[in-house]
Amino acid sequence: MVQIIVLAAVAFFLFWRLKSVLGSRQGFENPKQNTNNKSNPSNQNSKTKKKDDIIDLKPNAIDEDVADYVEENSEQFKTLNNLKTVEKGWMVSHFVSGAKLAYEEILMAFENGDLEKIKKNDF
User: Fold this and answer.
1) For labelling alongside 82, which of 18, 30, 69, 100 has CA 20 to 30 A away?
2) For the chain, how many structural domains are there in total?
3) Structure pTM?
């Protein structure tokens, strides 16, 4: 008898959790609209407005290329943004990938004892 009560309590808990998760409306679902009243011009205007409006989900214009590597309110963020405005086409991601390659090359030169490879060249 106790086993049946425990199983019933577990089943009740599972159904309650499923209803709380699946039974709620979340996200960008549009509420159901009454389409029977087609003579209402405001209803037609709202449909055309929805097609023409573009919703910007970002609260402010932050450069994601820079924000991926440094904090948004830091001095480095400002400096990297200034670099991007001065040098058109410059990207932080390309700079970081080049820096990683250079770091790897320097480490390999030290490991192999090839210090001539990493000495400063005067061009």
Assistant:
1) 100
2) 1
3) 0.42
